[in-house]
Design brief:
Blueprint lengths: L19 H23 L2 H30 L6
Helix pairs in contact: 1-2
Length: about 80
């Protein structure tokens, strides 16, 4: 019922250095940039612009999730 004084033999796990959602958003950003380059090379400017906008959105998501992970680890707020 109470604390028996025994310590767990399993070491405490540290949180990952970068949150998983930040890694996924970074992967989407890199793939969107690659798709934008391919679109511009093939001459499809409108589709290339759409890919650039998606890359910008996913880049912002990456920074948000990185900052949120740091704030959770440090115990501070996400925003300043």
């Amino acid at each position: 019922m109470g604390d028996t004084g025994h310590r767990s033999s399993v070491p405490r796990q540290e949180p990952p250095a970068m949150p998983r959602l930040a890694l996924y958003a970074l992967a989407v950003c890199l793939l969107a940039v690659a798709a934008a380059v391919v679109s511009f090379v093939r001459g499809s400017v409108l589709i290339g612009v759409v890919w650039i906008l998606l890359a910008g959105l996913s880049s912002n998501m990456t920074w948000y999730y990185v900052r949120r992970g740091r704030a959770a680890r440090d115990g501070g707020p996400v925003t300043n």
